[in-house]
Design goal:
Chain A: Residues 1-22 form the signal peptide. The structure holds two protein chains of two kinds. Chain A has helices spanning 2-15, 22-27, 30-40, 52-62, 75-87, 101-109, 120-123, 181-192, 194-205, 217-228, 237-245, 265-268, 299-309, 318-321, 355-372; strands spanning 42-47, 67-72, 95-98, 114-115, 135-147, 172-175, 232-234, 254-257, 272-274, 283-293, 330-331, 351-352. By secondary structure, chain A is an alpha/beta fold. Chain A has two domains: 17-139 and 286-340, D-Maltodextrin-Binding Protein, domain 2, CATH 3.40.190; 140-285 and 350-372, D-Maltodextrin-Binding Protein, domain 2, CATH 3.40.190. In chain A, strand 1 (42-47), helix 4 and strand 2 form a beta-alpha-beta unit. In chain A, helix 8 (181-192) crosses helix 15 (355-372) and helix 10 (217-228) runs parallel beside helix 15. By secondary structure, chain B is an all-alpha fold. Chain B has one domain: MetI-like fold (Orthogonal Bundle). Chain B contains 16 helices and no strands. Chain B has helices spanning 2-7, 17-43, 47-57, 62-97, 103-111, 118-129, 140-143, 150-153, 156-180, 183-192, 197-226, 229-235, 243-252, 256-283, 291-295, 315-318. In chain B, helix 4 runs antiparallel to helix 5 (103-111), helix 4 runs parallel beside helix 9 and helix 6 (118-129) packs parallel to helix 12 (229-235). Classes of the chains: A alpha/beta, B mainly alpha. At the A-B interface, helix 5, strand 7, helix 11 and helix 15 of A face helix 4 and helix 13 of B.
Chain lengths: 373, 325
């Protein structure tokens, strides 16, 4: 019965290949999507990572006849581009591979410019938090990093509040949070955890915190104190990695950076390592999501690509996921093992951001940072 | 001058040059300048836009969003314009009015820095003066045991020096064009006639090149206030912001309306300084000689006389036909 229905569906699909509704496409298996996708012949994806080039190669090998056009573009630009194109009635892109989720939810999901697609193949094994409102492909980080050559006994910082003491004056680095959304999200997370920040303050200084009257909570106080302690802002992650990681430096600074950049240690001569044993936390974990663009020109191929980028059932995720399976990034599929060189996800002290809450607090913290710079 | 060429095309009706040329001009200006400007202005008049005006000009963020970047921008503009005039003017004098060897080669070399992007110059500054504020590899001086203070490695002063080194070529080109319209023979003639050095400088050279000086100052000022790369690379580590780096940050973090407001204000600031320059030239209308006049063979006696037609800063460089009456 089920089988005959499937065949009937397949036949219907074969006769009217481009009229399948979104709901029908959402329910289709890879096998059912493939012929439709091949008829479409092309799928366009905006990607926050240049590693999309590797995915392109693997995808075209796995599914010959479908041309993957992967365009490397920052999250902010993707959002601006999708909004501008859809306002002008242009539908050119199928899939977004994007971070900056607080802004994505605010500007794209709420307005239905992008919609979620959860491939049936992986839907059963994913935790709910990775399926709503969009499909999370992996978790990335902005965490406290230090130089492991200069600090052979482990991280020089055990408590975030230590960064506001004279010892670390002018020696804490961060990419300008008013130029990069993820760093702003990090500061927002501090502000959303006032109780934990207050507790850590007491652990560091042995007395309860007093918060300035114009601020809301210990987290915002931490942001202000961090800036007051001559926090050094830099333009991009390359500068910060070099500054913290340089193997030859004798008294290197620490900073909030990307854990997975540790993968370049050998190639670049860095000694980047994550400071994990930090009170109350060492930073944030934030999702990189895959979203289907509304009125995508290739709806079947788009779904096929999203399915593909979730990786195969092997421990590494196969050629589709391997480019993203590096130390310091975390797959959300339980079948894909964390990289042996990294702290396991369960033991990483970073806070998981809640994009919806972050979105709500983002403007206030951005304005606070503006007054501090 | 385009009026002359297009008038050949047609002399009748709509296509008459008197109608056609202004229409083309209005179209070009409309598409390239007015339309984008109107769109930006309109988008700052929405509810979010008005919030942005308030945030930029009248909130607790104003100091960091507007006043301090404005101060830095104006300081950079004035500093760079002054520095470029001194350096470009000196070089122009050297190349045009003295018997320095190989003036053409010198002139060509002096224009080279303008062809190198300003971020390269900023990186070069880092190669020499970068200190350990950013950890990592330090510059030449600190690597050799000197301690480079933050004010010399980062911020306003390095940005100023880098931008002067970048834009002085512009001043040199404009001023040397004006100086060559005097020619060394005019100066020699004045010397033969017994004029003192100070009189030659203030009576002949300065009046002739003043419009060029103002043009050079306006151009280098505008270049400095709109430059992004140098203040971005050298300013950020000490949190120095100019209007152009602020503008970038606002757009980059999706605070588009605030970015638009800053962009509009930046235009107003630059335009008022350029207008001021223009006024200075216009104000000299009745007190200085025309370079064309001064350069004419029978005009020695009118070196500080009347008669002239300096309409625009570029007049001395291109000598429009109206000046050659």
């Amino acid at each position: 019965m089920l089988k005959s229905m499937k065949w009937a569906l397949f036949a219907a699909v074969a006769i009217l290949p481009l009229t399948a509704s979104a709901a029908e496409l959402d329910a289709m298996s890879v096998k059912e999507l493939l012929p439709l996708a091949q008829k479409e012949g092309k799928v366009t994806v905006f990607s926050l990572s240049s590693r999309i080039a590797k995915v392109e190669k693997a995808f075209e090998e796995a599914y010959p006849g479908i041309d993957l056009v992967g365009i490397d573009m920052s999250s902010v630009k993707q959002i601006a581009r999708v909004v501008a194109e859809q306002t002008a009635g242009v539908n050119a892109v199928d899939v977004l591979y994007i971070a900056d989720t607080p802004v994505v939810y605010e500007d794209l999901v709420k307005t239905n410019r992008v919609v979620p697609y959860i491939p049936p193949r992986v839907a059963g094994e994913l935790a709910d938090e990775h399926k709503t409102p969009l499909l999370t492909q992996r978790l990335s980080t902005k965490v406290l990093m230090y130089n492991e050559v200069a600090n052979p006994n482990g991280a020089p910082v055990k408590n975030l509040w230590a960064l506001t003491t004279p010892e670390w004056k002018g020696r804490v680095l961060m990419v300008d949070p008013l130029q990069r959304g993820e760093l702003l999200d990090l500061l927002v997370e501090f502000s959303l955890r006032p109780d934990e920040m207050a507790k850590a303050y007491e652990a560091q200084f042995g007395k309860p915190i007093s918060v300035d009257s114009d601020l809301q909570g210990a987290g915002e106080q931490f942001v202000r104190d961090l800036f007051a302690n001559d926090l050094v802002l830099v333009p991009n992650s390359d500068v910060i990695n070099k500054a913290i990681g340089d193997k030859t430096a004798n008294n290197p600074p620490v900073g909030f950076a990307t854990y997975s950049d540790r993968r370049d240690n050998e190639k670049e001569g860095w000694a980047l390592q994550v400071a994990n044993d930090v009170e109350p936390s060492n930073g944030i974990l934030f999702p990189a999501v895959l979203a289907l663009v509304d009125k995508a020109p290739s709806p079947a191929a788009a779904r096929l690509l999203i399915d593909f980028m979730m990786g195969d059932d092997s421990a590494t995720g196969g050629p589709a996921f391997e480019p993203f399976n590096v130390a310091g990034d975390y797959a959300v599929r339980p079948s894909i093992k964390d990289n042996a060189d990294s702290v396991p996800l369960k033991e990483l002290k970073a806070w998981r951001i809640d994009p919806v809450k972050t979105a709500a607090a983002r403007k206030r913290i951005a304005d606070l940072v503006l007054t501090l710079q | 001058m385009s009026a002359v060429t297009t008038s050949v095309l047609s002399r009748r009706g709509f296509l008459r040059s008197e109608t056609l040329v202004p229409i083309i001009l209005i179209l070009v200006v409309g598409i390239l300048v007015i339309a984008p400007l109107v769109k930006i202005v309109l988008s700052t008049l929405t509810i979010e836009g008005l919030d942005a005006w308030q945030a930029v000009l009248a909130s607790k963020m104003s100091e960091n969003l507007w006043w301090r970047p404005l101060l830095n921008t104006v300081l950079l503009g004035i500093g760079v314009a002054t520095g470029c005039l001194l350096m470009g003017g000196f070089l122009a004098w050297l190349v045009v009015l003295t018997d320095v060897p190989a003036p053409r080669t010198l002139g060509l070399l002096a224009t080279l820095p303008f062809m190198i992007p300003s971020f390269a110059a900023a990186l070069a500054w880092g190669a020499l003066f970068r200190n350990s504020r950013l950890g990592g590899s330090v510059g030449f001086f600190e690597a050799n045991g000197y301690i480079v203070p933050d004010w010399l490695a980062w911020g306003l002063l390095p940005t100023l020096i880098v931008l002067i080194a970048h834009y002085y070529s512009l001043a040199f080109t404009v001023i040397s064009a004006a100086l060559s319209s005097i020619g060394a023979d005019l100066v020699e003639a004045a010397q033969v006639a017994g004029a003192k050095r100070s009189r030659i400088f203030f009576g002949i050279i300065l009046p002739v090149v003043t419009p060029a000086l103002i043009a050079a100052a306006s151009l280098t000022f505008a270049g400095a206030v709109s430059n992004f790369a140098a203040p971005a690379l050298l300013g950020l580590p000490v949190r120095m912001q100019t209007l152009s780096t602020r503008l970038f940050g606002m757009i980059e973090t999706g605070q588009t309306e605030r970015g638009f407001v800053i962009a509009l204000l930046l235009i107003v600031v630059s335009a008022s300084f350029l207008w001021l320059g223009e006024r200075l030239v216009a104000g000299r209308k009745n007190s200085s000689p025309s370079p064309a006049r001064a350069a004419a063979p029978n005009a020695f006696r009118s070196a500080d006389g009347a008669g002239h037609c300096l309409q625009s800063p570029s007049c001395s460089a291109c000598s429009p036909p109206s000046c050659r009456r």
